[in-house]
Amino acid sequence: MNHSQLMLLTRTMPMKTIQVNGEDYLERYFVGVDAHGNQDWLHRFLRADSERHMHSHPWDADSTILCGMYVEQIQRPNGDKYEKYRYDGDENIITVGRLHRIIEVETNTWTHMKVYAGREPHWYFIDDDGVKTEMKTSPVEWWKDCECRKY
C-alpha cells in the first residue's frame, strides 16, 4: 500500500496523535482487536523521536513497514547501541523492556503493529546516565476516547 491508499483507509478509524516535546510525532489508528485481546494498529510517522532518550514498550508486538523507512537505534543488554535501517516490508519484533528510539524517518512512513495482549502497567525512558523514568501505560481500550482524523 502507498501513503494515499493508507490515508483513505484510515479516514474513519479512531486515531490519537502522540506528541514528543509538544510536537506531533505519530498518528496511531485503531484497526481492531481479536478474541485473544491482541490489537492491530496502524502508525503514520510524522517525524523522528531522536531527541528523546531511549524508551521501552509495555507490550510485545510485531511491526511491519507498509511504506517508507526509518532508522532505529537499539540498545543491547550490555549497553552498546547500534542502528538498524528498516524498509518497506521489514518486520520489527518488539519485546517488553527492549530500549530503542527512532532517529530518522522518511516522511509518511506507515507501519502495521500487532500488539499482543498482556501489557505491563508501566514503560520507561532511560537517560544517558542510566536514570529510569517510569511512565504509566495507556488504557487497553484507548481508542474508545478517540475520534477520526479531521482532514
Structural overview:
Helix content is 5%, strand content 51%. The protein has one helix at 3-10; strands at residues 14-20, 23-33, 39-45, 54-55, 61-67, 69-75, 81-87, 91-94, 100-105, 109-115, 122-126, 132-136, 147-148. β2 and β3 form a beta hairpin. It is globular, with a radius of gyration of 15 Å. The model has no long low-confidence stretch (mean pLDDT 93).
Give keywords.
1 helix, mainly beta, three-stranded antiparallel β-sheet, 151 residues, globular
The outline comes out as globular
The main sheet comes to: 7 strands, antiparallel
Structural class, from helix and strand content?
mainly beta
From the alpha carbons, calculate the radius of gyration and give it in angstroms: 15 Å
The percent range for strand residues is over 45%
A few lines on this structure:
This protein has 151 residues and is mostly beta strands.
Task: Please render the helix and strand layout as text.
Blueprint: H1 3-10, E1 14-20, E2 23-33, E3 39-45, E4 54-55, E5 61-67, E6 69-75, E7 81-87, E8 91-94, E9 100-105, E10 109-115, E11 122-126, E12 132-136, E13 147-148
Antiparallel strand pairs: 1-2, 1-13, 2-3, 3-10, 4-11, 5-8, 5-10, 6-7, 6-9, 11-12
